[in-house]
Amino acid sequence: MRYAVFVTGPAGAGKTTFCKNAVQHLQTVKRTVHWVNLDPAADPETYEFAPTIDIRDLISLDDVMSELGFGPNGGLVYCFEYLLQNLDWLDEELGDYTDDYLIIDCPGQIELYTHHPILPTLVAHFKQMGIRTSAAYFVESQFMEDKYKFFSGVLSAMSAMVNLEIPWINVMSKMDLVSTRSKDPASGRNGYLDPDPLLIAPSAVEEDEKQLNKRFHSLNRAIAQLIEEHPLVSFLPLDLTVTESIERIISHIDYTMQYGEDEEPKEPNDMDDGDF
Ligand SMILES: Nc1nc2c(ncn2[C@@H]2O[C@H](COP(=O)(O)OP(=O)(O)OP(=O)(O)O)[C@@H](O)[C@H]2O)c(=O)[nH]1
Ligand SMILES: [Mg+2]
């Protein structure tokens, strides 16, 4: 059985950094794993080690922009459409590997996840090849600084989940940047990791103080209600400076794909102290 996890999320959320760390970690524990770069805009100068499969061997954003005159976003869509027309290339690249675990580093253009049919088509192709798939959606901890920013992150995660329709986890990355005080569960951090829709509904005092436009109140309430009625989104914290934190994310990804089905079923490795 082959497994593939799509590492997705907005620009700069830490997808590539996680992919590299996860690959290195899994290699250390002697698991066979491959890094697949699906970002045609990736800069090879930043590779500490080469991906096993690299979309840039098929098409690169630089070439599309310089030769066809596309801008970065249109160019990215062109690259993916080109990939979909050349799935033979992907099959050939994937073909050499059986019984493998692929960590697929995706680009950061959010429209790829929220409404383009490109990734769902690609995922369907993986499934056809008998590869078990899942996704991890990364949102960075900076989104926890402000409740409105945070809810835009929750909504993008929800939209991506609904668009992709595969087993899924959400990751709150860069937790090393969150101050120790706000790591304390008593400070309300858990209201973010396991979102509390009431966070977004402003209190009466706040409403008066800020003299917010009444129309936005009803919109905020409607969004809060949507999140309450569809509690799909909760986040697993990731602090790359803590090995156990990487292990925990990997164990959740394994669980979503039932990795190692021949062995005893495993529960995700949650740490007892409830921290990372
Ligand atoms: N402090 C901290 N910085 C991080 C972490 N992960 C990534 N970064 C930094 O965040 C920036 C973006 O990281 P990337 O891994 O390239 O993010 P990405 O999601 O792949 O970005 P795109 O591919 O451009 O969408 C880089 O400067 C990283 O060094 C983390 O866990 N902690
Ligand atoms: Mg990246």
From TrEMBL:
Keyword Transmembrane helix assigned: no
GO molecular function, one term: GTPase activity
Top-rank taxon, per record: Eukaryota
SUPFAM superfamilies to which the protein is assigned, alphabetical: P-loop containing nucleoside triphosphate hydrolases (SSF52540)
Alphabetical UniProt keywords: GTP-binding, Hydrolase, Nucleotide-binding
Classification via InterPro entries: Gpn, Gpn3, P-loop_NTPase
Keyword GTP-binding: yes
Family: Belongs to the GPN-loop GTPase family.
Description of how the protein assembles with itself and partners: Heterodimers with GPN1 or GPN2. Binds to RNA polymerase II (RNAPII).
Role this protein plays: Small GTPase required for proper nuclear import of RNA polymerase II and III (RNAPII and RNAPIII). May act at an RNAP assembly step prior to nuclear import.
The name this protein goes by in its record: GPN-loop GTPase 3
Organism whose genome encodes this protein: Serendipita indica (strain DSM 11827)
